[in-house]
Each structure stands twice: as C-alpha cells, then as structure tokens.
Write a structure and sequence with these properties.
This protein is α+β, with helices and mostly antiparallel strands and 102 residues long. It is built from 3 helices and 3 strands.
C-alpha cells in the first residue's frame, strides 16, 4: 500500500514538472531560441550524470544575467554540473579590482 502511495506522489510531481516545461516552452519559445543561438553547448552524460559543456558564446559572459542563463540551461536539461571553457568568460571576470567576481 505504501509503495502505491509513493508511486502516486512521484507521478503527481512528474506531471507537474512536465506541465511547467511545456508551459515555459510555449510562453518563452522565442526567448529560448535566442538563448540557444547565443550559447554553443553540448549536453554530456557520464555514469548517468548529466552535465553541460559550454563551448562558446557570441559575447563573453560577464553579468549576473549570464550566470542566471546558465542556471536556467542546466535546469532545462536536468543537468547538475556545468563545464565552462575559459574563452567564454570575460577578461574582467579575472581582474579582481573590477569586483565582477563578487
């Protein structure tokens, strides 16, 4: 009986997650396409663990919004790790006096 209850709860949450994904895609279809055009990435999977490898960007990442875009990308692909190539980051990120890294 407990197993059936547990399966029902999991099914309910899975349906909610699917609904949110579908709604997000419908509402932000244009925005998602622009994000994908700006970011060149691959979704990788090793030992059943997904991660995103960010290969390149149209402009170097330098703002908090860029970081939020990467978090959203991980959430979209259900990845819990991110590998960022050095070339995708702004040079100012490595200069401590600019305070960008704080």
């Amino acid at each position: 009986m407990w197993e059936m209850i547990s399966e029902n709860i999991i099914s309910t949450y899975q349906n909610e997650i699917n609904w949110v994904r579908e709604t997000r895609l419908k509402l932000f279809k244009k925005q998602v396409m622009e994000e994908k055009d700006n970011l060149n990435y691959h979704v990788r999977e090793i030992d059943n663990k997904k991660y995103i490898e960010l290969i390149s960007t149209t402009e170097p990442l330098s703002t908090e919004n860029d970081a939020l875009d990467l978090i959203a990308l991980c959430w979209e692909h259900e990845a819990n790790a991110l590998m960022i190539h050095y070339a995708t980051l702004s040079e100012d990120l490595f200069k401590l006096k600019t305070l960008i890294s704080r």
